[in-house]
Amino acid sequence: MPHDPVPALISRATELLEAEFAALPAFETNPSPSFEPEAMAHVLEAAAHRLGDNYPYFHPLYAGQMLKPPHPVARAAYALAMSINPNNHALDGGRASSEMEIEAVHEIAGMFGWTEYLGHLTSSGTMANLEALWVSGLLAPGKRIVGSEQAHYTHQRISAVLKVDYSGILVDGHGRMSMEALEVELRKGDVGTVVATLGTTAIGAVDPLDQILALRARYGFRVHVDGAYGGYFCLIPESLDEPARLAYASIDQADSIVVDPHKHGLQPYGCGCVLFRDPAVGRFYKHDSPYTYFTSKRLHLGEISLECSRAGAAAVALWTTQKLLPLVPGGEFARGLAKGLAAALELDRRLRLDKAGRFEPLTAGAPELDIVVWKLKAGTLERASQLAQEAFEACATRDLHLALVQLPHSWFAPDGHVVNGVEATLVTCLRSVLMKPEHEAWLDRIWERLSAACADAVEK
Question: 274 and 175 in one domain?
Answer without folding.
Answer: yes
